[in-house]
Write a structure and sequence with these properties.
By secondary structure, the chain is α+β, with helices and mostly antiparallel strands. The protein is 31% helix and 13% strand. It starts with 8 loop residues before the first helix and ends in a 7-residue tail after the last helix.
Length: 195
């Protein structure tokens, strides 16, 4: 009687093919799941920054944080001004973006609405008016930018541009302190910029 001591070449190739097919199916799923986790962490950052803006307004005669106290956008900028209302300096960086160039002394992944320093009473719909968003400098995700400009004065790929680093969308913070993810084109074509 003859007993088999190993696998045949065909059996090994079938097992390898099955493993390769499973890996091809599962790796993209894992990558999407990792990006979803980073997107959730980023959303938390934007929410904390939005709440910092609201708390700042409570201390400064109901006026939201201004983009910059310096001439022509110099220091100190909004991200330094709301720092006392935040617990962690790491919330200025999105986990899906690691900028290599600073913006006025800070690596930052988020931008504030260029028209800032307005009274909360001026903002007719604070829950629908965009205050903060994921941004990039032009089309370069490696450069920080702490501001975004209101369309249609600036094209979609302009300086201070809205990023689409989270599954073709971005996290947005609003003047009432809440935050949510939206498609980039939907944000750009909306009227969420108007006070």
């Amino acid at each position: 009687m003859h007993t088999r001591k190993g696998f045949t070449l065909i059996e090994l190739l079938v097992v390898i093919a099955i493993i390769a097919i499973l890996a091809a199916i599962l790796f993209p799923v894992f990558a999407r799941a990792r990006e979803k986790a980073r997107q959730s962490s980023c959303l938390s950052n934007i929410k904390q920054l939005s709440l910092g803006n609201v708390m700042y307004a409570q201390d400064y005669d109901e006026k939201t944080v201004i983009f910059s106290q310096g001439a022509s956008g110099g220091n100190p900028q909004w991200h330094y001004l709301i720092e006392p209302y935040l617990k962690n300096e790491n919330i200025y960086l999105c986990p899906s973006q690691r900028p290599t160039a600073q913006w006025y002394g800070r690596m930052i992944s988020y931008g504030i609405h260029r028209s800032t320093g307005v009274s909360l009473a001026q903002i007719g719909k604070p829950a629908e008016t965009l205050a903060l968003a994921d941004v990039r400098y032009l089309d370069d995700e490696d450069r920080s930018c702490a501001v975004f400009y209101v369309p249609p004065s600036e094209p979609l790929g302009s300086f201070g541009c809205l990023s689409d680093r989270h599954n073709d969308g971005l996290n947005c913070g609003f003047y009432d302190g809440h935050a949510k993810w939206m498609k980039r084109r939907a944000v750009w074509e909306s009227d969420m910029y108007d006070f």
